[in-house]
């Protein structure tokens, strides 16, 4: 399985998955087949998704908890008790409704599912706290990135030590939105204001996330790959334009035990 690894510090393993390396067929796969669809709610067969998730967990070296993402700003902190409760379900299901997960538990993977929205991976390797964030249009404006950073500092992280990775997402040149929607989101996050290649109103979600991280003094690396135009990645927008559905890729992070 090919992945896009990111360095979030010593004792932390993190990467972004691509659309291949799994067992799902089209439309949850790239043209080359072997789709690594990790989303359970996109009409793919559940057994295939479980197999794909198992492959990602194996690669990460830890079981991966995913939240049921609801485009809000809620953060779920998985401490020892929550981890035990989640792991006791067979097979492990959703960790709960949230758009960010945070843990200080080594050996527990956290995952965020996306197919155009922005996946963010966070780690303070010194404090031993990691997090993932699902930042779509609504979550970005609602401040879910800030809420995740707050949850990390509450567990002992320091913003000056936190490293962030902003993963593949739809870019501002491709993400066309109605004028009023651009105005609404840009009112909350000015850096997200964009114009598409077609000259129409757009939103640059990765730029918005990077600005929010920078405002908190968090150092970030940006994986500049656009989901809509990159054939190795799932894109909800590209699939919708083609009249079909698609899968979900993930960003995952864990503290090595
Ligand atoms: Zn693009």
Automatic annotation (TrEMBL):
<dbReference type="Pfam" id="PF02578">
    <property type="entry name" value="Cu-oxidase_4"/>
</dbReference>
<dbReference type="GO" id="GO:0005507">
    <property type="term" value="F:copper ion binding"/>
</dbReference>
<dbReference type="InterPro" id="IPR011324">
    <property type="entry name" value="Cytotoxic_necrot_fac-like_cat"/>
</dbReference>
<keyword id="KW-0808">Transferase</keyword>
<comment type="similarity">
    <text>Belongs to the purine nucleoside phosphorylase YfiH/LACC1 family.</text>
</comment>
<protein>
    <recommendedName>
        <fullName>Purine nucleoside phosphorylase</fullName>
    </recommendedName>
</protein>
<dbReference type="InterPro" id="IPR038371">
    <property type="entry name" value="Cu_polyphenol_OxRdtase_sf"/>
</dbReference>
<keyword id="KW-0479">Metal-binding</keyword>
<comment type="function">
    <text>Purine nucleoside enzyme that catalyzes the phosphorolysis of adenosine and inosine nucleosides, yielding D-ribose 1-phosphate and the respective free bases, adenine and hypoxanthine. Also catalyzes the phosphorolysis of S-methyl-5'-thioadenosine into adenine and S-methyl-5-thio-alpha-D-ribose 1-phosphate. Also has adenosine deaminase activity.</text>
</comment>
<dbReference type="GO" id="GO:0016787">
    <property type="term" value="F:hydrolase activity"/>
</dbReference>
<keyword id="KW-0862">Zinc</keyword>
<keyword id="KW-0186">Copper</keyword>
<keyword id="KW-0378">Hydrolase</keyword>
<dbReference type="InterPro" id="IPR003730">
    <property type="entry name" value="Cu_polyphenol_OxRdtase"/>
</dbReference>
<dbReference type="GO" id="GO:0017061">
    <property type="term" value="F:S-methyl-5-thioadenosine phosphorylase activity"/>
</dbReference>
């Amino acid at each position: 399985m090919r992945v896009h690894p990111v360095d979030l510090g010593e004792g932390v393993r993190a990467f972004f998955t691509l659309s291949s390396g799994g067992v799902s067929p089209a439309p949850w796969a790239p043209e080359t087949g072997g789709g690594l669809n990790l989303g359970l709610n996109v009409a793919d067969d559940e057994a295939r998704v479980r197999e794909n998730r198992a492959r990602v967990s194996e690669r990460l070296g830890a079981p991966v908890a995913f939240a049921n993402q609801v485009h809000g700003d809620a953060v779920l902190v998985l401490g020892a008790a929550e981890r035990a409760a989640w792991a006791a379900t067979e097979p492990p299901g959703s960790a709960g409704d949230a758009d960010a997960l945070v843990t200080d538990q080594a050996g527990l993977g956290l995952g965020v599912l996306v197919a155009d929205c922005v996946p963010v991976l966070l780690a303070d390797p010194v404090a031993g706290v990691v997090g993932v964030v699902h930042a779509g249009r609504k979550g970005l404006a609602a401040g879910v990135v800030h809420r995740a950073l707050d949850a990390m500092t509450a567990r002992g992280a320091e913003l000056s030590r936190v490293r962030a990775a902003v993963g593949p997402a739809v870019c501002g040149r491709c993400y066309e939105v109605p004028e009023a929607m651009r105005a609404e989101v840009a009112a909350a996050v000015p850096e997200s204001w964009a114009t598409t290649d077609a000259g129409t109103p757009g939103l640059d979600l990765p730029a918005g996330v990077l600005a929010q991280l920078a405002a908190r003094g968090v150092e970030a690396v940006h994986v500049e790959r656009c989901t809509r135009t990159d054939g190795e990645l799932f894109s909800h927008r590209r699939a919708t334009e083609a009249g079909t559905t698609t899968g979900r890729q993930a960003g995952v992070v864990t503290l090595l035990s």
